[in-house]
Amino acid sequence: MFTYALMISLAHGGNEVGNGGDVIVCKDNKVMLLDYHEAKDYGFDINFKKDDVGYRPVLLNIISEFKKIDSKLADQYLKRLNEIDIEINFKESVDLVDIPDSYHVSLPKNCKLKQIAIRLKEKRNGKQFVIDKDLWRKLDVRHQAGLILHEIIYEHFLFLGEKNSKKARYMNGLISHIGSGNKLKVSYKELLRDREIPIYR
After folding, report:
1. Parallel, antiparallel, or unpaired: how do β-strands 88-91 and 31-33 relate?
2. How far apart, in whole angstroms, are the C-alpha atoms of residue 24 and residue 122?
3. Hey, what long-range contacts does 4-12 have (CB within 8 A, 24 or more apart)?
4. Is the pTM of this model over 0.85?
5. What is the dihedral of CA 61, 66, 70, 73, to 10 degrees?
6. Which run of H or of E encompasses 18?
7. Which DSSP state fits 184?
8. In degrees, to the nearest 5, what angle opens at C-alpha 67 toward C-alphas 163 and 171?
9. DSSP β-bridge partners for residue 20
10. What single-letter DSSP state applies at residue 54?
11. Pairing relation of β-strands 88-91 and 127-132?
């Protein structure tokens, strides 16, 4: 009953629900971030070390490595990271409404896409984001870090006029590849230009 009520509440807030983040849930109970599944198709290797303390040290390391490539954007994302924790509402026993903004091409067999996060257009009681806590717990800390980074990037790209999450997911994979200490086969600026990533200088 509670789950249904939340779904109705979000659905009727058509002007309030902005965008979200997705995970892939498989029959073996494996849960992974859609961004990181797709990253392999782009040749990105996301292999940063797992930190049992939590997602934040992982994400700080990613941003620290990324700063060597793009210090201005890294500082912007670090600033947002330091603000975002208090804006997240983790909800248990909910089924978040699907936001059809992923435009993904494929999923692994015996797996399905699930909405794990929703960014509201307007804050509710100081909260900008709703995250499915049950799915969150099933992510390892690396994918938790990736989800928070996804929300930071997607929020930025929305302000720059993007209408779906495709480029944000690509950028998440790119930053996480760099954050793993990996080299790029072509220049960072060339990758941004080829994918028409909306980071305007």
Report:
1. unpaired
2. 27
3. 6/91, 6/94, 6/95, 6/96, 7/94, 7/95, 7/96, 7/97, 10/96, 10/97, 10/118, 10/130, 11/97
4. yes
5. -60
6. strand 17-26
7. P
8. 25
9. 118
10. -
11. parallel
Which residues does residue 90 pair with via DSSP β-bridges, in sequence order? 131
Cα–Cα dist 36/132, whole Å: 19
Which two structure tokens, joined as six digits, stand for 166?
A: 């495709």
Question: DSSP string of 104-172?
Answer: -----TTEEEEEEEEEEEEEETTEEEEEEHHHHHHS-HHHHHHHHHHHHHHHHHHHTT--SSHHHHHHH
The residue among 178, 179, 198 whose CA lies nearest residue 187 is 178
Q: What is the pLDDT along the chain (201 residues), one digit of tens a residue?
A: 333 334 434 443 444 545 789 999 999 889 999 999 999 999 999 987 766 678 999 999 999 999 999 999 999 999 999 999 999 999 999 999 888 767 676 788 899 999 999 999 899 999 999 999 999 999 999 999 999 999 999 999 999 999 899 999 999 999 999 999 999 999 999 999 999 998 754
Output phi, psi for 73, to 5 deg: -70, -35
